[in-house]
Amino acid sequence: MTDVDQAPPTTADAELDELYREFAAAGLTPLWTQREGLMPITPEPAGVPALWRWSTLYPLAERAGRLVPVGRGGERRAIALANPGYPGRPYATSTLWAAIQYLGPRETAPSHRHTQTAFRFVVEGEGVWTNVNGDAVAMRRGDLLLTPGWHFHEHHNTTDRPMAWIDGLDIPLVDQLDAGFFEFGADELATTDTPARSFSERIWGHPGLRPVAGAGQPRPSSPLMAYRWEHTDEALREQLSCAAAGHDATVEAGHAAVRFTNPATGADALRTIRTEMHRVVAGVSTAGVRHVGSAVWQVFGGTGVVRVADQSYEVATGDLFAVPSWARVSIEATSDLDAFRFSDEPVYEALGLARVEQEVAE
Ligand SMILES: [Fe+2]
């Protein structure tokens, strides 16, 4: 039966079909049939806004702690947040990995290094030390701990209690760039020392001061491996206090924020991942902002309502949410809210692809 609305095939159509068949046979694809997908008007990430609740994550990690040993091969008992926009892939966003890592009492996670850049952020607990290139770094609530690319690292729990924290890495980015290298370290711990302050903090952890020794040495990622909560907390508190006294100190009214930086350069602490802590005062709604590039946030304390693109989440301590590229995000604090944010912005800035659209506060 002939469809009356459809024009009969012409010689030109048949020739075009044949051309497309020959394109395919020759391993070719014409731009004109795919331009919109390849060159969208604005970014069209496959990743979607997504929420993971700490009250769900922690008990599941605890069960994994009982059932799954940690050791050589698997290397880490880390459970990745998988964005539904990347089915079957352990990606929180197109470039960022985020996982809950759980280490049982007296457990050790073995030494290795990789080209992927990593950090740990601790929402609760203490008692684990991460040895970074042999330097023992204590992990405590509110601390940001770095393991820049190609630094050997291992974790050991010195207590009779389990500990869980968030690992953030650029695994999806490095995967897409085919730049992954991995190396196993020694089977024995580099050190079992448990100092309150690592060597890196004793050398680099003094505000505004850097050692003269080795001043000419390039330090593309931070030589300081730990950023302590007491410093972060004080910086945020002082911003709000100075803003209340009329100084230009906060991002916007009732919204303080700090960025973790490399003390040798002032740039981001890590080369591929931006790390920040935000504090939003109860009752304040932050102005909407969207970035090219993606981010993951974890609520460190307090409660609020988070809006990401067309999604809205009520969040509390430990909850994580993913913000895809160019999705508008705003936070309404229903109690004083602290939130840790990490993003891939340094990559976009280095490539000349960064864009930010900031709404003006009402
Ligand atoms: Fe690792």
Task: Note down, in words, how this protein is organized.
It is a single chain. This protein is an alpha+beta fold. The protein has a single domain (50-207, 218-355), classed as Jelly Rolls, CATH 2.60.120. It is 19% helix and 30% strand. It contains seven helices and 22 strands. A six-stranded antiparallel beta sheet has the order 1-19-16-21-14-13. Strand 17 (304-308) and strand 18 form a beta hairpin. It is globular and about 80 Å long. The N and C termini lie far apart (62 Å). The mean pLDDT is 95. The structure holds fe (ii) ion (FE2). Residues 112, 114, 118, 153 line the site of fe (ii) ion.
Largest sheet: 6 strands, antiparallel
Mean pLDDT, rounded to whole units? 95
Helical stretch count? 7
SSE succession: HHEHEEEEEEEEEHEHEHEEEEEEEEEHE
What would you say the CATH architecture is? Sandwich
Beta-strand percentage?
Answer: 25-35%
CATH-derived topology: Jelly Rolls
Outline = globular
Bound molecules: fe (ii) ion
What is the count of β-strands? 22
- What is the CATH domain class? Mainly Beta
Strand arrangement within the widest β-sheet reads 1-19-16-21-14-13
Blueprint of the fold:
Elements lengths: L10 H15 L9 H4 L11 E3 L1 H14 L10 E3 L16 E7 L4 E7 L3 E4 L4 E7 L2 E6 L3 E4 L5 E5 L5 E7 L1 H6 L5 E3 L14 H6 L21 E2 L1 H16 L10 E5 L14 E7 L8 E3 L3 E7 L2 E5 L2 E5 L4 E4 L5 E5 L3 E7 L1 H6 L5 E3 L4
Antiparallel strand pairs: 1-19, 2-3, 3-10, 4-9, 4-11, 5-8, 5-10, 6-7, 6-9, 8-12, 13-14, 14-21, 15-22, 16-19, 16-21, 17-18, 17-20
The chain binds fe (ii) ion.
